[in-house]
Structures are given as structure tokens and as C-alpha cells.
Amino acid sequence: MVSSLPDAAGKGFANASSYDVHRPSYPPEAVDCLLIRLQIKGIEKARIVDLGAGTGKFSQLLAAREERYEILAVEPLDEMRRECEAKNLQGVTVINGDARNMSVEKQSADAVVAAQAFHWFATDEVLEEIYSVLIPGGNLGMIWNVEDYNAPKSWEPRTAWEAKLKDIMWTYDDQHPRFRHESWRKVFDKQLSSTPFTIQAADPLFSLPVGEDSVDFTHWMHPEAIWERYRSLSQIAVLEGDELRRVKEAVLAAMNAPDVERDPDGKLPLHGRTVYAWTSSVPGAPVKNGG
Q1: Is 197 helix (H, G, I), strand (E, B) or coil?
Q2: Letter string b/e over residues 10-44, b meaning 16 or more CB atoms within 10 A of that residue's CB
């Protein structure tokens, strides 16, 4: 299947096993809050589509819950999908699908969740596809782990060394949409893009405003582990040779500055926040492309 993801994502995520090892899971508090908002916490056998499931990090959390969810992990990249399949997660069916064409039965999902992914495919076409697989009134959730060094420019990093890593990250920005660009909301706002004379005739697929909340996190990690996590980000993962060496040297130099806080084991506090967002589909809304 042809992926709707940009080449930068495909190349950056080619090393799926490294991605799976070095990317963090999601805080239980944030996951619980999101599932409540999606009205599926405590709902046994609810059917959930994990869209852009990657190596199955979010599916793994869902599969471990007592609700015994039916989970459809939709992922277009072969390496990522194989990594997810290898986990043999209970209640999880891994599907070779794309955000524009999930290969999921229409009006069959109680919820669709995009974990660390929605920014890649936040388009009208994808919103219509998501709407088409949800039951009437079904819910869409999005969740991201956002380290201070990979955050929007308006977010203030909590330490000087993380600010330096953030500057490096933005230096290598490739203009492909990521959470830090904060453009993912536009596809929802466009539903009511109109003048005061036409807004009454608007037919949004999803309710507005989109709900949004976050949970702060701090992970204590050794510098080399932070580097590996940093390197797993797609725009850094594509670097090679001298360019990659220069970035690594700059990152490690920032972490080795004399004013950097460390615990007795030499670990540094890596700061960030887990952002989650939710909205519900509007029953009976017209779909331009017919789903």
C-alpha cells in the first residue's frame, strides 16, 4: 500500500527496532484521561483503531488493560508493522493500512486513536476516512509525548541544556509537519472556515472546539540514552556521516556542561509533557468523498 506519509517519515522510521527501544511509552494518567474522554474507559470489548500504530507502543498499553479491547493497529510502513506484529499482543490485529485508506470496516470503531502520529496526516481526506470508520458519535483521540527539546517554539525549555538541544532540533527542521509546528489543529478549525454569512451552513464532521490537556513528565536518563532517544526523531535519524557526528558532539557537549543537574548515578532529568486531545464525530454529517 502506498503511504500518505512523507518520505522523511519513511526514511526516519526505517530503523523500527531502534525506534521501539528508545521512544518512551505514555504516562498511565494521560492514557486514562484520554480513554475517559473517548468514552471507552471501562467499556469491555470496545473496538479501537490505533491509527499510525508504528511499533505498537500505544496498542501495547491498550492490550494490557482489563477492558480486553478489540484493537486494530493500522500501520503503512513495513518495518514498523513487522515490529508490532512480533509483539503478538492480545486482542490486537495488525493491518497494512494507511490513514487515507485504513482497510477497516465502515462505522465499526468506537474510537480512533493516533499516538505520536496525527500531525503526519492531518488533512481533510484523512478526517473523512476517520469519520467513516467510526460508529455514529464515535470519538477521535490524539496523544503525543513532547520532550522540551522537540516542543513548539513558544514552549520554554526547563533547563539550559534542553534549550540547546531544542535549538539544534529546529536547525534541522525539514518543514514537514510535526507536533512542534502546531499545525495539526488547522484541519479541525477549517471545518468552520467561513464568513459570518456562511458559518450557519457549515457541516463539521467533528465537534469543536477540540478538547486538549497535558501531563508533565520527567525521565531520569543517562546522556547516551538521551542521545539515542534524540536520534530516533525522524529529522535526526536521516543524518549520516560527519553531519550526524557533529550533531552528536553538540548534543553531548550540551549535556556535559558543568551546570547540568545530575543524580548520583549520572542521570539527567529529561523534561516534557504528554499532550492529549479529543473530539467526537457529529452524527449525520455529510462526507464529501463518501468515506
Answers
A1: coil
A2: bebbbbbebbbebbbebbeebbebbbebbbbeeee
Pairing of strands 134-147, 92-95: unpaired
Q: What is the mean pLDDT of residues 269-291?
A: 86
Taking 90 as the threshold, does the pLDDT of residue 228 lie above it? yes
Q: Which three cell numbers stand for residue 257?
A: 556542561
Residues 6+ apart with CB under 8 A from 89: 56, 59, 60, 63, 71, 73
Is residue 89 within 8 Å of residue 111, measured between CB atoms? no
The x, y and z cell numbers of residue 157, run together, are 525549555
Dig out the grid coordinates for 41 from the structure. Answer: 474507559
| Pairing assessment for the beta strands 109-115 and 70-74 based on DSSP bridges | unpaired
pLDDT at 155 over 70: yes
Confidence (pLDDT) at 199: 44
Grid coordinates standing for 144?
A: 503525543
Sheet holding 92-95, edge to edge: 92-95, 70-74, 47-51, 109-115, 134-147, 268-280, 211-221
Strand 268-280, strand 211-221: pairing? antiparallel
pLDDT at res. 3? 53
Q: Are 33 and 200 in contact (CB under 8 A)?
A: no
* 3 state SS of 233: coil
List the one residue out of 79, 10, 80, 92 whose CA is nearest residue 50.
Answer: 92
Q: What is the mean pLDDT of residues 33-62?
A: 98
User: Is 113 in contact with 34 (CB distance < 8 Å)?
Assistant: yes
DSSP 98: B
Q: In this structure, which amino acid lies at residue 160?
A: A
pLDDT more than 70, % of the chain: 90
What DSSP designation does 206 have?
B
Q: Name 171's Cβ contacts closer than 8 Å, sequence gap at least 6.
A: none
